[in-house]
Every structure is written in C-alpha cells, then in structure tokens.
Inverse folding.
C-alpha cells in the first residue's frame, strides 16, 4: 500500500502524444507564439466575417455587433477557423506530428464527448444562473426559437466537439 501511495502518477496522455513530435518548441517560443496564434487568428478571421455580414446586409457597418444567432455563429466559426489552420500548419511543418495528437483521440470518443458535453452544459447553466441572479438576464415563458437558434445551438455543440472532449 505504501508503494502505491509513493508511486508517481502516469504521464497524462496529452503529454505523451505531444512527445510524438520530431521537434518540440522552446517554452519561450510557446509563450510568445500562443498569443500570436490566438489574437492573430481572431483578427484574421473576424475581418472577412464582418465584411461578409456587411455585404449580406446583416450589419450596417463593421462596427455594429452581430444581432442574430446566425450572425454570431458565422463570426465565431470564421474567427476560429484560422486558429485551426495555424495550429495544423505549425504541427505539420515545425513539430511534424499529427493534428489528432492535440488530444483528439478516437478511443472512447463517445464517452469522452458525452462527459465534455455534460460538463459544458453544467458550466453554461452556472453562467446563466449567475447572470439571472444578478439581473443581467431574464427568462421569457415563451422563447422565440427559429431555425437560426437551432443552427447556433448546433454550432455550439460542434464547437464543444472540436475543442476536445477532455
């Protein structure tokens, strides 16, 4: 029993998968490139998304906030797409490892996705409860739900899938 308590934990699978890389970046490079990837991809993706929404007449100017769930979903998807492309290019060209090694494993994917879905739903509910308790949000007895709301909910579910089930 003492041996069991003193034994070091196994290496997490995500770290083991990262070791598949032929080259791992220096920690300083990771600290510098992380914000570049995140903010750069958001900027790169948000500009075409805003222009698309302006051209379709959903926004009067690029400074307006998207109003409908579909507009917000287009902005969300197009602003994250460059991040995935940048990550894929980095993994392929620099680290020379597969994209799935970011934690997107196929084993027990349904169970891990369900766990992530339930945790995400719980966290989403806690945020909504906090907003409701402080008066920031009011729930209506007869919410209006059109096809755009269903599409936005589907994109949220797909986003939870892409973010990784844990």
């Amino acid at each position: 029993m003492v041996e069991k308590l003193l034994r070091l934990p196994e290496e997490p699978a995500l770290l083991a998968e990262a070791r598949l890389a032929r080259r791992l970046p220096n920690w300083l490079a990771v600290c510098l490139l992380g914000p570049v990837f995140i903010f750069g991809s958001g900027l790169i993706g948000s500009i075409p998304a805003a222009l698309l929404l302006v051209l379709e007449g959903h926004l009067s100017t690029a400074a307006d906030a998207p109003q409908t769930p579909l507009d917000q979903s287009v902005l969300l998807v197009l602003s994250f797409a460059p991040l995935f492309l940048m990550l894929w290019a980095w993994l392929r060209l620099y680290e020379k490892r597969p994209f799935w090694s970011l934690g997107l494993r196929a084993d027990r994917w349904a169970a891990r996705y369900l766990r992530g879905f339930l945790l995400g739903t719980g966290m989403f509910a806690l945020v909504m409860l906090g907003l409701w308790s402080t008066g920031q949000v009011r729930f209506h007895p007869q919410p209006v739900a059109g096809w755009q709301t269903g599409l936005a909910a589907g994109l949220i579910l797909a986003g939870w899938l892409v973010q990784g089930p844990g």
About this structure: The chain has a mean pLDDT of 77. Residues 107-166 form one domain. The chain has six helices and no strands.
